[in-house]
Amino acid sequence: MSRIKVAIVGLGNCASALLQGVYAYRDRESSEAVGLMHWEIGGYLPGDVEVVAALDIDRRKVGRDVSEAVFASPNCTRVFHSRIPRQDVTVSMGRILDGVSDHMRGYREEDTFAPAGEPEPDEEDVARLLRESGAKVLLNYLPVGSEEATGFYAECALRAGVGMLNCIPVFLASDSGWAERFERAGLPIIGDDIKSQMGATIVHRALSDLFRDRGVELTRTYQLNTGGNTDFLNMLNRSRLASKKESKTEAVQAAAARRLEEGAIHVGPSDYVSWQQDSKTAFIRMEGRIFGDVPVSLDLKLSVEDSPNSAGCAIDAVRCLKLALERGQAGPLLGPSCCFMKHPPQLYGDRQAREWTEAFIRGEGHGR
To answer: Which residue(s) pair with 300 in the sheet?
Structure first.
């Protein structure tokens, strides 16, 4: 099979984990493929992903080869595969817009964003880069709250004629206007807000499913998250969290037997703890009523390395987008979006989403 040519916006921890995984799994056989939901999708293996273009706005990454940029500060994810060969792909200057929160610009002097004097590209500049690189899929790894910047890159994807994987909680695939535009352009999109392989949202949803299946009434719940990477630092600006909170909350609400009142559910990022680095800790509490209206409660603590935890979903989603492009399928891919994303165009249970995704892989429509 040919490589799946991918362009990445945002060379942060998630991009680092993804690229490390591509080369880690190239060296393995299927019998050694620990940590994957799918070894093969439509003939494509995890190692078939190839980064052909990249954009960032940090002076420590712009102008460097992708193989170096994914390990540059402030990236702090675990290095589980350091042998990434030179890619001969230079990180290009991106468009800033709202891609950097105001409080992040002055967080530390050495964390200066945007190389001095480096011109920012317009839509045609980025579209040209995508076309000339041969990219087929654009991955959006911008920070939470990058509403304008995400819209800018979605426009670039439409101009360049590439599919899009929207990994952040800015609503594209789940927005009827954007969904229709990708449909009309004949381009597939998967979104929005990528789930982790074994993260707080998927665990919270599974527990909500368990409560429902066992006849337990869920009355109150919260999910509190702490981490030390730049994603959590960025989210200290609460004004950027509206879509993130909606995405995570609705993902849990959809799995509950009945919708909880607003005051009975709290799901969202909570605090930045610098020494945690890319390690994320989630605290989940669920309260309910069992037989005889007797109370029951559950407390769970989950600790994960944040970025590799989402890379497993991203590497499957990229391969699904490539299949859609080959088949001429356009618009939001419902099965993969429901399976890999917190805020898909429509919310369904995880078992149903998994079945639809397997149907999509087999070639049965969009997976529904």
So the answer is: 284
